[in-house]
Amino acid sequence: MAPKKNKLGSRLQNSYLLSPITALDIYHAQPGRSLVLAGEDTYLKVYHAATSKQLGRVKIFHSQPIHGIHVSQTNNTETRILIWGGQSVSILPQASLQTLIQGGHVQQPREFKAPDWIYDGILSPYDPNSGVLVTAHNEIVPLRSTPDGQVLTFGPLTSPSRPILYSANLSWPSAESVLVAGGTVFGEIIVWKYYTSPTPERPSQWELLYVFTGHEGSIFGVSISPEIELAPGTKIRVLASCSDDRTIRIWDITDSDCSTSASASSTNENGPSKDPAKALADARETGFGGNSNSEANEEHQNDSARCLAVAMGHVSRIWHVKFTGRTNHDSPREMPIDVWSFGEDCTRQRWELRLDIRRWEDTKAQNYITTKESAPIGILKHCSTSPCHVGKNIWSAAVSMASEEEQPLVVSGGADGKIAISGGQSKNENGTFGSNYDDMELVLSVSDVMQSVGAAAELGDLAPEKQAKKSAKEGFQRYAFLSEQSFLATTTSGRLLTGTTAKDNITWENVDMSETVMQDLKSWNIIKSPAKGLAVLGSGSGKIYLYQQSRPNTIQELTQLPNKVSDIICLEDPSMRKQPNTWTIIATVLALDHAFMSTFETNPTTGETRQVSSRRIDLTPNFVITAAAFCNGKLILGSRIGVLAVQRPKGSDGFETEQSRKDCKTKDAVTCIIPLPGSTETDSFLAGCRDGRYRIYTLDKDLLHLQHEISPPLGMIEGAWFTSSPISTTKNPELTLYGFRGNNFIVWSETSRQELASVECGGAHRPFDTISPAHNPGQLKLVFTKAAQMHFYSQGRQFLRALKDGGHGRELRAVAASASGSKYRYVATAAEDTTIRIWQIDDTTTQASNNTYGMFKPLAVLERHSAGIQQLKWHGDSYLLSSGGQEEFFIWRVTRLESEYESLAVVCEAVFDDKSEDGDLRIMDFDVSPLTGNIPRDGKGEEEEKMIISLALSNSSIKTYIYSPSERGFRLLFTGRYTGACLTQIRHLDIDVDSIGDIHVLTGSTDGFVGFWSASFELREGYLYPAQFEYELDSVVKLHQSTLKSLDIAPAPDAHDRGWLVATGGDDNALGFMRIFLEEALNYEWEVKRSITVVNRARVAGAHAAAITGLAFVQTSHSEQQPKKEEAAETRQFLLATASNDQRVKLWKVELRGAQFKTPPKVSLLDNQYSSVADTGDVEVIPPSAAAAAENGVGGGARLMVGGVGMEVWDLV
Q1: The pTM is what?
Q2: pLDDT tops 50 at residue 292
Q3: Cβ(1202)–Cβ(838) under 8 Å?
Q4: Mean pLDDT value across residues 817-821
Q5: 15, 18, 23, 25: CA torsion to nearest 10
Q6: Pairing of strands 644-649, 634-639
Q7: Do residues 852 and 805 lie in contact, with contact meaning Cβ atoms separated by under 8 Å?
Q8: Three-class DSSP category at 667
Q9: Coil, helix or strand for 27?
Q10: Taken in order 911, 914, 920, 922, is the CA torsion positive or negative?
Q11: Closest by alpha carbon to 223, among 249, 193, 245?
Q12: Phi then psi for 33, rounded to 5 degrees?
């Protein structure tokens, strides 16, 4: 049947979009105010670079994603924005841009069509109404526009040759010419000039300059630098290229007389010139590798010699390469040229290009006639690698400098929808970019430090050469920060050295101490800072010493312990909070079955410190304390092998073990225990471990409950803290973790899922200490030992931050919204990147908000699946279920943390273990229902809500299980086998426990059939027992010609039966509908037998232009209660939303009419909108908030969410 089209206005309105960032540019609006312009599908969005605030957005194209943005910004003309995508072109005038920046509404600009696919565009800096475009076939398209951008005309195409390009870049060096660089599919780079107007001396509008060869793969990125001053009177222009071969090459394209034009003579003063016809034929050649034309090879030999430097980087393809735009590299002398590359591996890398200026000048003078054995003129040095996106691909990048006094702004946009940004900071009065935490990196040996403080007393009588020899044997041993400006270091000879940081240097002082103390610390020492300006030292003899910054030349002995002090743990004792100037430590002693907790008080006037109390901590065998904290009056301890222990007070002078628990699967140490801020009611704490995971526990009735277990991108977690704002009391604390990953020390924000710092240190298992301000974890000071030397690193600000948060880096395959009616509403998404993300829906977010996440606030990322995720569903608000390849099926328990730290606690409660022999099937779909009725727990009368879970597997079988949260196990009830077709969908229709005792299931498959299954069971002693273990396939109904891709069910009862309306979407682009009901009848044994009856069905052919991969009933006109008999013939209306691979979202009205709704459904198309989401994976209805439901009535206020390559939300209006 053909759908009836409705003439009503638009019913769907887009309210949220998270899509790959496909275009970026930077607009320096005024000094100190830079804006980032981003293309997100068809929308242009403007962000404030410093505050991350989205200032405005405007739809540019009707249904074409934006591929490029060019900001025409000069001192003499007004700012205009050239925007292109595919063949579409638009110009945004300055008035519209200013309105957009101020948050006003801007009308969609006119969309024009160029004659070919566009790779780059530029507006003239000399004439604001003219510009040029370069196409995928190396053609220049001139354009002229009116000042308001409402009229745009294209000129004739010009090209020296028409190879297929993968990349292109334009530069406008003079009023009469445009420089063009194109990277071809087959690894060549063509550089030529386009002349805006022909002259009698130069009738042709193009001039071929160079054809570069050398890459061994397609050219994915080319970038023309500005003219760079290397020295007074010495300028160079270079071209950077990147390729499928993972190399970056730098080429010299400085203007010279050796270029080739269409009218060039056969010779010039430098020798034979290139034959244009041969050059163009060479450029058009197909295939990689050398050219069989030896004459052409000879002609191109000098071009290839213009390659100044080559470097290999990234672990996969390189998409973009950019220059900073700095033009003066003479001050400081021979300053390196910065180059940035962006790759498929989601990293960006910084390189420094250093040139031998004298060799370059000599080689240039010889017209680059060199031998193959000649060394490169330049060196491309790798400086840093920064992971900035997840998944795959950085699709856009921009690098720009507002002035020579500012750091370059580096912006990247990924397939994950995130915009990452760094730089843009101005120099301060000291001439640096730092703050109180100055950017600094130093490497010092003990001898360097000793020379700065002067020789020690015992070295004073030795000859200088003996002093150096003795100092060379000395090394740094431990470190402890006393404050943000100073730290203490101990050496292997027992010395104490204090370092004070200032600007770009460290001032050192040697702490005077007695020979006895020095010898005691020489063999072994451990050092910790329990409070600002204090350091506690433990020695091999069991002594505890105190160093006070206020008394720099006094080392006070605090106490004597029975044996060697193996570790010192600083902790906050809640019982001492009312006593100022007190601090508490736990000292562990070698080979003892107990530890010592000591509290000390420091007199602020005299500086004297006394011991207030000492308590003994009894330990179980082999328990070595590595972390400790108080929680609800109990002492929580972490051990070296991953065990947690709860200690209760033992009288007034000790603690004893009450219980212990180990969730770490390895023997890695617990490194930190941090109480959750504001969690006094639930008594929750966080425990970090060297197995790379952190866990959150709740101490309830003297029992430890695991609430959260997650593995952030750290190999080892060494510490954690929650941020606190010195100004705002309303901002929630954020969780920051630090540890090691590979050879790097990493600081990670778990709240924002961002890497705050990465320092190459050689890896874990080395002495180190770090400090950061409590309100700004992006600032950092780190001191550590590497290769017997002390390394000091200081970071003044977070190097890389999110201008806009993203999501999954791969296609979404499943979307699930939690049930309505709860205080918090969640959406879970699962993607091809094997991760699950849980978001909180924030309806209060507006465009004026300063957050970086928009409507969906990220709360948790789950990374346990190892294969592609197929399906995702909520069971209430407390359980999330997920399925995927390799027969992976997980049940996640989700809990809202009752603390100031706003997050979810998620733990994998159960793992499906009833796998096939090979364990390589995919769980294509599943359904979950509560097992309601009189179901006692373990037959003891205590009720527990169990789950009925049915799985559809890729081997054409279905399985139904009972899951019990208390047992955390799956008990098989029924199995069934379909034909050779693969099952793609499964739904529970009805489960009756108390009366008849049966289950009815619906399935969809790749042969286009819908199948109806049933099985019976009985209840005995609190357990369900199947009457037979095999499902019966009662009937099948053909709805589609091929695979059934999507399915949804809405209750549709009438006065006589319990029924449903089934909607299906197929690979045949059609919609299918069935009205079914559950019919009761007596079998031959006079038993009530229920079966599914199909009342009617309908099919809408060509509902979309491609496969319908997602659909959902958005709203119905009736409740789920049985209607009255007199209402039996009334019309029931349903709203159905569908999404397809044709990137259309459609809204349909489905009407059921007639007695028992036997008349086939009447289907009308209400709306048809372009969708920004490609490769649609799922469609889900987001239930309205309680306020929206109260305002709009039953079903009102619901939203539609579409997931695929990105995700979007539609409001029903």
Answers
A1: 0.89
A2: no
A3: no
A4: 77
A5: 70
A6: antiparallel
A7: yes
A8: coil
A9: strand
A10: negative
A11: 249
A12: -135, 100
